[in-house]
Design a protein that fits this description.
Elements lengths: L1 E7 L2 H14 L1 E4 L2 E5 L2 H14 L6 E7 L22
Length: about 90
Amino acid sequence: MFVIMVYDVKEERVARALKVSRKYLNWVQNSVFEGELTVSQLERLKAELRDVLNPDEDSVIFYKFRTRAYFEREVLGIEKGGEEVFL
């Protein structure tokens, strides 16, 4: 499935949330990530984030799509983040 994840995390937890998120998804900009995940990968991501976040102060939203085919992405202004390609 294709997933878009956004988070609003207190400053003292941002670095850890970023590290966990980048293990599973591509960084798009600031607190926005996207990418293809299996159901089990998504569950592992959620579990790792639960260990980092304070549910009384932080929030994470997941937008899930069955496939990327029915979704269009348009960027106005500069493109931040993006997929990292290693050769």
